[in-house]
Amino acid sequence: MKYSYIKPRHKSLLTKEIQMILAFFSITFFILFATYFFLLMKDYSYKKEMHQLHISRLGIAKNIDNMKVQIKFIEEKSLLAQKIYTKNTVLKDSIKNLFDLVPQRITLSEAKLLENGLILHGITPNKDVYNFMLQAPLRSIFQRTQSSFYPAANGWLRFVSRNYVDEALVLPEELKNEN
Amino acid sequence: MKINISTQSTHLLFIISLLLILVLVFSFFVLVPKGKQYRADRLEYQKESKEVKKYQDIHTAIEKKLKLLENKNRDLLHSFEIAFSEQKFQEQYAEYFSSLKISKLLSKNTQDAFVSYEVDTRFKMSSPKSFYDFLDALNSSNWVIAVNPPISFKRENEMIQSSFVVRVYGLNNEINATKRVVE
Question: Is A77's Cβ below 8 Å from some Cβ in B?
Fold first, then answer.
């Protein structure tokens, strides 16, 4: 039995308005989720790269420390060698000066160059020659000078001259520590 | 005035409101905090990159300095590394003297970075220059050698007998000294 004379129109749950709304929100959600995943990926990538950078920085820092140690070592060795070479040269000059210091009329039989002094054994025609020609220059170099004489067989005088400088004037402190 | 809203429109309004709320919630509670974290991470990454760049620059500068020092002191470092040989020493410096003897001294101090040797020499009294030449030659030696007082010179007829102590510095001595300290 029919209640209407017209044919019923077809009804759908997804009307055009609903379809438009769903399309709009689908696109919106897609963009939102895409942005979210982009951020997630970037975040993960930054964290991973940061970790690598951190490891790389630690490695570089360690290398820098090692190189600093090597530089310090080389500088120390270079300084030590320079000090040794200078000391050898100074010693050579001291010995040269010592031999130049002794006048023709005085003959040395023994000389001992100490860290802080000089001991000379020799023979002199008389005390005056020794005092004027050897002791005078020695006094100008050393702080403490002590001489003793005893007669030699040929009528000349044998002498022992002990000369010292104050410790602080001999060598710089760092060279002493090395010694 | 009475407003007539159809059931369909009500449903439509409800769906729009629901989806809008979802969008807003997702945006403000998920996306915005994530975005903030992303910016913070990016800043931290840039900071770390700058720091690494700074370290790399320092590394390059120090490496350059080290290379320069190594090149400059290559022979010197080599001198510290070469093992001392009494025989070679005698062969090398015998030409300066009439006679040359070298003997090792026993050190009481085991922490020394050097080994001490006693050197006995004889040279002609008329030519002390050979002794000065010997001291000069020591500075260009294969080893790092220091002549240490006391140095004694004794006249024996036309010859001068001289004895003194030389100290030979070497890396091996230092390593041994360090080992002894550790033990």
Answer: yes
A144-151, strands of its sheet edge to edge: A144-151, A157-164, A117-124, A107-113, B144-156, B159-169, B114-124, B99-104
CA B138 to chain centre: 27
Q: Say yes or no: B30 and B92 in one domain.
A: no
* Mean pLDDT confidence for B78-90: 85
Q: Does A100 touch chain B (CB under 8 A)?
A: no
- What is the tens place of the pLDDT at every residue in A121-171? 999 988 888 888 888 888 888 888 889 998 888 888 999 999 998 765 554
Record: contact A87-B146, CB cut-off 8 A = yes
Same domain, B108 and B45: no
Phi, psi of A28 (to 5 degrees): -60, -50
Residue A112 has φ and ψ, to the nearest 5°, of -130, 115
The answer on B65 and B145 residing in a single domain is no
What confidence score (pLDDT) does residue B112 get?
67
Which DSSP helix (H) or strand (E) runs through B154? strand B144-156
Q: Look at the alpha carbons of A95, A96, A98, A103 in this order and tell me if their dihedral is positive or negative.
A: positive
| CATH code of residue B126 | 3.30.980
* Residue B179 pLDDT exceeds 70: no
Residues B135 and B177 placed together within one structural domain of the fold:
yes
Residues A96 and A120 in one domain: no
Residue numbers of the domain that contains B101: 84-182
Compute φ and ψ for B159, nearest 5 degrees.
Answer: -115, 160
Tell me what ipTM this predicted complex has: 0.76
| Chain B CB contacts of A167 below 8 Å | none
Residue at a domain's end among A101, A122, A146:
A101
**Integer angstrom CA distances of residue A168 from A82, A116, A171, A178, B177:** 21, 9, 7, 15, 29
Instruction: Specify whether A169 is located in the same domain as A134.
Output: yes
Which residues lie closer than 8 Å to A43 by C-beta, 6 or more apart?
A: B34, B37, B38, B41
Q: Which of A42, A70, A101 is the last residue of a domain?
A: A101
Domain count, chain A: 2
Instruction: Write A23-28 long-range contacts (CB < 8 A, 24+).
Output: A25/B19, A25/B23, A28/B23
What are the chain B neighbours of A113 within 8 Å (beta carbons)? 149-153
